[in-house]
């Protein structure tokens, strides 16, 4: 008996939030912070993807990189068209002016292997999923990782150890909790001992992560090596 090859449709987060190109940048920044999002697709009224905008794009704007003094040699070899584009992205007030255009996307029947190859080749963390050219979801590296973890050990070509079972159960439970900083907290399991390390937003989340790990069957001990980083944690694209 063979297992069905997972596709982007199986892996994607459906009904993904998107924003219009004329949305003010200030409104978008507030939305990303309030919803703990690192990036959103930009679409037209028909659902066609025009670009993607991330916290990294907004940080570049906030930092005002293009306002820094530049030496005469840098000015001499600079490309005027490229500099104009960077200026618009740094100082633009609308999403269309700061977004990254020419987004890499996949159709919903693309295989998981193809999606993984694109993420690796293009050095990106997520791809929009299209159906007849319209946005229907998004697949991230975390989605691919969960797909691998969900595979039966036999499909992965290996026997699952007790530590691997604990790790998989831990990641499954973390994925179900909206407060979990899955992109910034990492887990290592050895001989039934779970080590949690990375960054969390608050002391409450730190304590909850420890409780979550302690509840996993087979866990003997939880070592808390997490650090608190206030504010919005921002992974790049």
From TrEMBL:
Domain of life of the organism in this record?
A: Bacteria
> Which InterPro entries does the annotation name?
BON_dom, CBS_dom, CBS_dom_sf, Diverse_CBS-Domain, UCP036990_CBS_BON
Q: Which SMART domains match?
A: CBS
Residues forming the BON domain are: 162-230
Which CDD domains does the UniProt record give? Answer: CBS_pair_BON_assoc
UniProt xrefs under PROSITE patterns: BON, CBS
Q: Which SUPFAM superfamilies match?
A: CBS-domain pair
Q: Where is the CBS domain?
A: 12-68, 99-155
> Which keywords label this protein?
CBS domain
Keyword tRNA-binding assigned: no
Q: Where is the signal peptide?
A: none
A UniProt-annotated Pfam family: CBS
Q: Which PANTHER family match?
A: CBS DOMAIN-CONTAINING PROTEIN CBSX3, MITOCHONDRIAL, REGULATORY PROTEIN
Its protein name is: BON domain-containing protein
Which species expresses this protein natively?
A: Muricoccus roseus
Q: What is the lineage of its organism?
A: Bacteria, Pseudomonadati, Pseudomonadota, Alphaproteobacteria, Acetobacterales
